[in-house]
Amino acid sequence: SEVEELLAHCDRIAVLSAGRLAAVFERGDWSQERIMSAAFSGHVASESLRMITRWGLAERRQQLRRSRVRS
Q1: Distance of alpha carbon 2 from alpha carbon 8, whole angstroms
Q2: Rounded to an integer, what distance in angstroms lies between the CA atom of residue 39 and that of residue 45?
Q3: 8 Å CB contact between 17 and 38
Q4: Nearest Cα to 13, choosing from 30, 25, 23, 3?
Q5: Contact, 22 vs 37, CB < 8 A?
């Protein structure tokens, strides 16, 4: 795989995720699992933020509905 080639030939690997620098690994400090985890970290964080935002909006809608019922 491409990651295995990087592990074999590089002294340092910088990983981008969702357009941002996610991690920099020095030789001996990396594994394929750590590199892949860093590669998806920005996407996971973005999705988590979207889920939290959706939950927050849903909660706010419920609060508004409850306040209208009480009025």
Answers
A1: 10
A2: 11
A3: yes
A4: 25
A5: no
**Tell me, what DSSP letter sits at residue 11?**
S
Composition of the chain by helix, strand, coil, percent to 5: 65, 20, 15
Output DSSP code: residue 66.
Answer: H
- Look at residue 26 and give its three-state secondary structure: strand
pLDDT digits (tens, 9 = 90+) for 10-55: 999 999 988 889 999 999 888 888 888 888 887 766 666 566 666 6
| pTM of the predicted protein model | 0.57
CA 39 to chain CA centroid, Å, is 8
